[in-house]
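Lecture 7 notes: from sequence to structure.

We start with a single chain of 204 residues. Read the sequence below before looking at the structure.
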Amino acid sequence: MIVYNINDVKNKISNISAFLNMKVSDELLHEVVVTYLNNQRSGTHKSKTRGDVCFSGRKPWAQKGTGRARSGQKNSPLWRKGGVIFGPQPKDYYIKISKRKKNLSLNMALSLKFKSSNVIVVDSVNIDNIKTKKVVEILKNLKIIDKKNLFIMFDDLKFKISARNIKNVFFVNVKNVNVYQILFADKLIFTIDSLNYITNKMKN
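Now the structure, written as tokens:
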């Protein structure tokens, strides 16, 4: 694979054969993505039942003799401002998934991106000052200005702050990247260091 400089192309090759030879399971990727999205849910949604609505427990009118239908309390779900029947209640959406599945699915997701030539490796993206313009220049030089780009690197505060106001440009520490982020992005941009890290992690 060619490793790009911010401004030109260098003839360096990175060993990615392990990713290209991997068999991909759509079922496992689907399971991991659904698990990730479920685990992002706070589950704090709650509607008020008739026991939560603030009304007097007094009977609105007599049981008989008024000519109207029987009614016990004003907090009935049949009444305006009454409780909600079968409404959402707090729930824990957490799904446990094994570490082996996480690692395997991560490698599969990367394999898909490598096979479709949607991975770019750069020697570095170091910038001297916090400037959004600098990141835009990098995107233009790499010809990915109109894509959903995920920069997978080690922590770089200057770059992270410079890129955060650019639409469709995302930054993630290589140690924390997950399957959903990889599949969501159109292009993955690695530095040599981060690619070597994730390649070595795959071997272990």
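Residues 29 and 105 are 6 Å apart (CA to CA). Keep this in mind for problem set 3.
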